[in-house]
Amino acid sequence: MDVTSHSVKRITNCSPDTEFVNPKKSKPEFREGFGSNVINDELFVAESSDESLLNNGRSNLFRFATKAESEKSHETRNFGTLKVLSNGYPFPYVIVDNFLKASVLEQLETEVKSLEFHKKSNDLFQFSQSQDLSRCPVGRTLDRFRTELYSRFRNWVAKASGIVLNDTISISCSRYSRTDTLLCHDDMLDDRRIAFTFYLVSADWKPEDNGGTLDLFSVDSLGRPDDIVARLAPVRNRIILFKVSPISFHQVSEILSDSRGSRLSVSGWYHGDYTDNRNIQPPLPLTRHISYEIELNSFINPKYLNLTCQTDIRETFGDESQIKLTDFFLPRVYASLLEELSSISWESLAVPNRFHYHRALESSLRESMAISKCLRLFRSEQFFVFLSNCTGLKLHELAATSEGSESDVGDIQSSDSEELPINTNTGIESTNGSTVSGSAIRNAGVQSVNRNTVCGSSNSNTGTESTNGTPACGVSLRRFSHGDYTLVHEDSHEFSRDSLDIALYFVDGVWDAICGGATNYVADNEELLTVEPVGNNLALVYREKGTTKFVKHVNSNCLSGEPTMFYDFVGSYFEALNDI
């Protein structure tokens, strides 16, 4: 619940010796549910006996329910001083307050705070986590708490839910501090069946000031997460359990303040049998290059149209597989675009377990607008040739066909675009402002490009796709502000082939890296490259099949000053496709 589950390779127990495993989804069981009883033990507050509590339970009390059914049938019951609330919408969950005796609670909190926590961060989450507590001795009270959760309490969960649970132990402690979050996911990993989190927050924790709620999502007709319909507060001495299913979408909202300490919890899962039931997403829409009347020197800094400069760019790109071109657009063009971006119409794109941002509504753009012209530029035949010259990739038949040769660019440069002297400040940089090892990126999946290989050499060993087909691209204009992000999904068709990624950023000022929003490239569970949003910088990254990327969650730090948002024109260019 407070640790990650996702439809790509994920960290299951975020210990220093982390293992990554492939997730497996299970078939929804829409008629199972929890009961609302808890066991009696000297650790717990309940005054009734185990037997009487269990006998009072109903195994279908927490069945899946519609919103209307839930409003009528949700129930709160008391067992001694234990308060138990159950609900079936948007998926079955149970809340138990006053779970531990006060003396035990204090001892447990002391032991949890003494643990060593490790900061964890990727596309889905940012928080700190202890080592896996499955078996290692960590403290007298914490050891006993773990033992009880995975013995008698697990037996109660199995009986009350009707799910056959196995002996697998998955438990750790999490600490969320300011700007930490866990974005929307469903917990469907391996054989997880029931998730739980026990809270050790301060008694005066206020979700409206501190954040950290457990948000539950409804789903649309396709089973995708839709709206947040319940926000469950982290309350001291509360345990929340829910049934893991293909629709158990939830998130931990961003921590807004540390004024009442960290959001501390003990969380884990109960495990049982599953059935695989994964859905593959539709492919990325792509188009061939389009013939427009475009003059590149009306947009692009003339130094980048100089053939000598393009050769320098191509050599750097060939070594590093990535490059950043600063001051890419002419100043007047950049200023005009930045002004228009604040006034056009945007559509919200929100599938919470995949992405959350705004995209320009292209149908509302007038043809005469600078933004429309810019989108045509990126899809134009001339730009395909320009990218070919700068990277060595064969994105057009006019592209370089051998080492050191350039295309005939007479059609894409005006007659007065004569060769300019190249000084030491060419504007060519690593995408993250520092030197990135080309070999490190190649070995992990973002390949260095060899022009002979790209053009179809038979002794290729780079894994580049066959050039038999049609070059194509997918381009869009996006806006990111507080709460926006994209997540990694390896079932995305976007990552099923080699591509050249571009990103041109627009920022009204200087974007602070502490606000998030960077694009991160990942392969084989290793973060390879970070591209920060810097105004008027064009980032070019060659991404090999299987290498994924995501935009890091934009956190509340962006609200403390200007700018509060940024924009990017993003595209993926493919050398040769036979399926468009």
* Content of β-strand: 25-35%
**Which geometry do the CA atoms define?**
elongated
The pLDDT mean sits at 78
> Could you estimate the helical fraction of the residues in percent?
10-25%
Low-confidence stretches: 3-41, 45-58, 275-283, 401-426, 432-467
The SS-based structural class is: alpha+beta
Sheet with the most strands?
A: 13 strands, antiparallel
Question: How many angstroms does the end-to-end distance come to?
Answer: 40 Å
- Write down the Rg: 27 Å
| Tally of helical segments | 12
Summary?
The strands form 4 sheets. Strands 3, 4, 5, 6, 7, 8, 9, 10, 11, 12, 13, 14 and 15 form a 13-stranded antiparallel sheet that branches. Strands 16, 17, 18, 19, 20, 21, 22, 23, 26 and 28 form a 10-stranded antiparallel sheet that branches. A 3-stranded antiparallel sheet has the order 25-24-27, with helices on one face.
Descriptive keywords:
single chain, 580 residues, alpha+beta, 13-stranded antiparallel β-sheet, ten-stranded antiparallel β-sheet, 12 helices, disordered N terminus
Model description:
It is a single chain. With 580 residues, the protein is an alpha+beta fold. 18% of the residues lie in helices and 27% in strands. The protein contains twelve helices and 28 strands. It has helices spanning 50-55, 67-73, 102-113, 140-149, 152-161, 207-210, 307-320, 331-341, 370-378, 381-391, 438-444, 451-454, and strands at 10-11, 20-21, 75-79, 82-87, 93-97, 118-121, 125-129, 170-176, 181-185, 192-199, 214-219, 225-232, 239-243, 250-252, 263-271, 287-288, 322-325, 346-351, 355-360, 428-429, 470-480, 485-486, 499-506, 519-523, 526-531, 538-543, 548-551, 566-577. The strands form four sheets. Strands 3, 4, 5, 6, 7, 8, 9, 10, 11, 12, 13, 14 and 15 form a 13-stranded antiparallel sheet that branches. Strands 16, 17, 18, 19, 20, 21, 22, 23, 26 and 28 form a ten-stranded antiparallel sheet that branches. Strand 24 and strand 25 (526-531) form a beta hairpin. Helix 3 (102-113) crosses helix 4 (140-149). The longest helix has 14 residues, at 307-320. It starts with 9 loop residues before the first strand and ends with a strand. Residues 3-41, 45-58, 275-283, 401-426 and 432-467 have low confidence and may be disordered.
